[in-house]
Design a protein that fits this description.
The chain is of the alpha/beta class and about 290 residues long. The chain contains 15 helices and four strands. A four-stranded mixed beta sheet has the order 1-3-2-4. Helix 4 (about 75-90) crosses helix 5, helix 11 (about 175-195) runs antiparallel to helix 13 and helix 13 (about 220-235) packs antiparallel against helix 14. The longest helix is centred in the middle third of the chain and has 22 residues, at about 175-195. The radius of gyration is 30 Å and the shape is rod-shaped. The mean pLDDT is about 90.
Length: about 290
């Protein structure tokens, strides 16, 4: 198959047109990148094996760029320029998207370019990448980046993993990484349920033999059980638990019923549950849940 470099008049990238460059790369779009071969050899295992060692001083060729045979690489300009800037120590623009970062990372892995891989690792915890935690988690677990994987797993707590929109990203995960993530979400849910059912923490609602402190009438904890079920449901849908701490909880029918539940004796009417203390205990339970794989 004939390359683009051979079928059209090639253009040279202005940032990679040094006379010192004795290696020429050609992108799939026909752009030439002239770069010193020692840069390619010293920063990538791929070109270290592909390119011949540099000639001794005094024997180096002074041929112009157009006489050098270009090395055709299977990368578009946006990817090739970025990785060449990284290995050359040139200024690089902000990452445009996660797609761009993944494409460059794929090339860095193929070339075994440890420098760009390290630079990419230092960039992946930026807010724009944390906004896509499943993609970040997949990349981090693939390359064994433990700290980044833990951070990404924490950010996934804002997601309901069983929604259809996440299926594609989950299918890409290695089995162990997927099981670890599912385990984190499940453990938070199960431990939260255990805490909600704990009589020592929520005595007023969970004690089956609870009596009104005002008149001694037996307490009907139906409203607490409904509220507890709603808390569990919300955490199951969004394991981060932030929906349990915001103002929206005030509008839940279950919470309204729980905070207004009172003794059935008309002459007593004492409220069953302390709203502020109960919400404080819910917050404390959430704070004790595991937050990373």
């Amino acid at each position: 198959m004939t390359s683009t470099c051979e079928t059209s008049a090639p253009k040279v990238h202005p940032s990679f047109d040094s006379r010192e460059g004795n290696a020429v790369l050609c992108s799939t779009e026909g752009t030439l990148y002239r770069i010193p071969s020692f840069v390619l050899r010293n920063t990538t295992a791929y070109f270290r094996a592909l390119l011949p060692p540099p000639r001794p001083l005094g024997q180096q060729s002074s041929s112009p760029a157009q006489t050098l045979d270009p090395i055709v690489v299977d990368e578009k300009d946006v990817v090739l320029e970025r990785i060449l800037r990284l290995i050359s120590g040139l200024e690089t623009p902000m990452w445009g998207s996660f797609d761009e970062l993944e494409l460059v990372m794929t090339v860095a892995e193929k070339w075994d370019a440890q420098g760009p891989i390290t630079l990419i690792r230092s960039a992946v915890t930026a807010p724009r990448f944390l906004a896509e935690p499943l993609r970040l988690y997949g990349m981090a677990t693939r390359f064994g980046w433990e700290e980044e994987a833990k951070l990404a797993s924490t950010c996934t707590l804002g997601l309901s993993l069983y929604e259809e929109e996440h299926a594609d990203q989950l299918q890409r995960l290695p089995t162990k990484a997927l099981l670890d993530l599912l385990s984190l979400h499940r453990r938070r849910r199960d431990l939260f349920k255990t805490a909600l059912d704990c009589e020592e923490i929520f005595t007023a609602g969970n004690n089956p033999e609870s009596y009104c402190s005002g008149c001694g009438e037996k307490v009907d904890n139906h409203s607490w059980r409904e509220f507890k079920s709603r808390l569990f449901f919300e955490l199951d849908q969004r394991p981060l638990g932030d929906t349990l701490l915001g103002l929206d909880i005030e509008e839940w029918p279950e919470s309204i019923a729980c905070w207004s539940a009172k003794c059935r004796r008309q002459e007593c009417g004492r409220l069953y549950y302390d709203k502020l203390a109960t919400l404080r205990d819910v917050r404390n339970c959430l704070n004790k849940l595991p937050s990373t794989i």
